Each structure stands twice: as C-alpha cells, then as structure tokens.
Amino acid sequence: MKPDRKQEAQRWLRQAEYQLASAQYLLSGGYYAMACFHSQQNVEVALKALRYLRGDRYVLGHAVTELFDNLVADYPELVPHRQQAIKLDRYYIPTRYPDAIPGGVPAEGYDAREAAEAVSVALDITLLAKRLIEGA
Q1: Contacts with 116 (C-beta within 8 Å, 6 or more apart), sequence order
Q2: End-to-end Cα separation, the chain, in angstroms
Q3: Distance between CA atoms of 5 and 76, rounded to whole angstroms?
Q4: Domain limits of the chain?
Q5: Whole-structure pTM value
Q6: What is the mean pLDDT of residues 71-80?
Q7: Alpha carbon 37 to chain centroid, angstroms
Q8: What average pLDDT does the chain have?
Q9: Which CATH number fits domain 5-134: 1.10.579.10, 2.60.40.10, 1.20.120.330, 3.40.50.300?
C-alpha cells in the first residue's frame, strides 16, 4: 500500500531535517565545504517533500533552481526565498571534487561566512516546508 501524499512529504521532510542538522554540525566543526554541500542537499530534499505533498509521483533531479521553479505556482510562499536558495546549486559538485577548484581542494575553498549563509538559507526553507506540510 502506498503512503498518502502527506505521509510521503513528512518522510522526506524528516530526511531534510537530518541533513540540516548535519550541515549545522559541520559548520560548527569548521567543515565549511561540507556544510555548504549538506545545505544544498537539505534544500533539495525539503523541496522534494513539497513536490510529494503536491502529489507528484516521481521526483528526479538535483537542481534546487529547477525544483523551486516547479513549485512556486503552487506554493507562492517560496518566492521570497528563491534568490538565496538557487545559490545553493553551486555547492552540489564543487564542494566535493578537487577538479572543481583549480590548484586546490574543496576543503580549502569555502569559509565560515559562506557556510553560515548556506545553513541559514537551508534552515529558512526547511521551516517553511515544515509549515506547509503540517498545514496540509
């Protein structure tokens, strides 16, 4: 038996909350590249939770920008967060692979300010997704 839309959205939201906690922990430990990456992952999963809440059956892809653009008509509350959230897409690959940073490694390419901003955006979007899911 398939779970209903709200149950599936809640399941995805639980994972998003775990990823947010991971990003916060990594930020506090000085692992800035990984905090940025987990913030992107968090927002990706939180937005996928909203897609499942809406009734989408298969949600593929990893681009926060595409997920956002697909959702704003149904969830206009997301619009004020779009500009900040789409910046997270640049953390999907370069935070993990040395060939993304010429002459360096991702672990050395990100700072506390950048990671704190990414985590803050992730927190805002996760809380919004949670409100929308709980209110459904």
Answers
A1: 27
A2: 21
A3: 19
A4: 5-134
A5: 0.94
A6: 96
A7: 9
A8: 95
A9: 1.20.120.330
Q: What is the predicted pLDDT for the residue at 1? A: 39
Judge whether 125 and 43 are in contact, CB under 8 Å.
yes
Which amino acid is present at 81?
A: H
Say whether pLDDT at 122 is over 90: yes
Nearest Cα to Cα of residue 52 among 4, 1, 124: 4
Structure tokens of 136? 């459904």
- Residue 111's identity, in one-letter code, is D
Burial class (CB in 10 A: 0-12, 13-18, 19+), 80: exposed
Instruction: Give the chain's length.
Output: 136
- Give the tens place of pLDDT for each residue, 77-87: 999 999 998 89
Across 30-40, average pLDDT: 98
The position carrying tokens 């490694």 is: 105
User: Residue 63 is encoded by which pair of tokens?
Assistant: 């681009």
